[in-house]
Amino acid sequence: MHESTPAWLHHPELGELPARRLVECVFALAPSGRILHFHVEQVEIAEGADGVRYRLNGQPPRDERARCQVIPPVVNAFRQPRAGAA
Description:
Oligomer: single chain
Number of strands: 6
Shape: globular
Strand content: 35-45%
Radius of gyration: 13 Å
Structural class: mainly beta
Distance between the termini: 17 Å
Largest sheet: 6 strands, mixed
Number of helices: 0
């Protein structure tokens, strides 16, 4: 996924959240400003012309993920690119 490609996580309670993927982690920015942390086995991934969509699938993270130390992106990374921005 290119950094400027829009990405969204559909959360069952919070709705559509801006998201970013780093390695096998999917981070989403909640309306409260909290960064939510999921892993690729916990989401269905759909790529389309409008960007990447992640949807929680109800699966738990793999056991080895308990030690995941991937540092989430800063909040500014969740800003979606503006139309016409380079």
